[in-house]
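Let's practice the habit of predicting before peeking. Look at the sequence and jot down your guess about where helices and strands might fall. Then scroll down.
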Amino acid sequence: MKFTKMHGAGNDYVYVNLFEETLPTEAPALARAVSDRHKGIGGDGLVLIEPVENADARMRMFNLDGSEAEMCGNAIRCVAKYLYDHGIAKKDKLQIQTGAGLLHLELFPENGTVERVRVNMGEPILESAKIPTLLSGDPPVNATLTVGGIELQVTCVSMGNPHCVTFVEELNDDLVLKIGPQIEKHEVFPRKINAEFIQVISPDEFNMRVWERGSGETMACGTGASAVAVAGVLTGKMNRNVTGHLLGGDLELEWSEETNEVFMTGPATEVFSGEWKQ
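Done guessing? Here is the structure:
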């Protein structure tokens, strides 16, 4: 099976082109094997690029634990780059089907390859039952969540997958690596959740670390950054146009007041290609 390693702001996945390739085993098991950074290729998971009717491609993504997620904002930028750079869909505007629905993307090619992509992430889902969370509010804003013996004020948003955003004075390992896993599996989140920890620098800028559902801490999370942009407005901490500084790079975000849609712009990078023989 041929594969390509790509990353969006450091959020790295193993990509397989199912326009040409066939999976050697079931996707969840393959995701666990290829994601292993010691015995496999290494990555935050597996992304499948599939042919589909009524769109340029379909993206399916599996976390490193084998669980399938609805969407990944960083991965979908890389899928767009792959489709363009490899001649599958040589267009500046693409439509890609995901578990969170059909998404529209604008590509910015330079010298024949794509380096940046703008994604219409769609409208945020703000109803508690649809996020889903048992916390009250549509959505829960500055809701109290007790985790690890401490009380956090959290704001929950879905961008096709669920996010729990906590604004903090400073980012540290205790929050991300100890509290993050407990938030992910907390009983008030029936489908588990992604946990974002945010330090606001100004109304236009924030620092972010994320504990991703099924993957642990990652260098970046596009849907998470989009959820943070929404949470920042809902809590009155940030403007509708913001820049997020993630461990792997920066993302530009806009929650449009006119359309209610969130737009995310960021890099997409191809690292290497190879052949999986296990």
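How did you do? The chain is about 15% helix and 45% strand.
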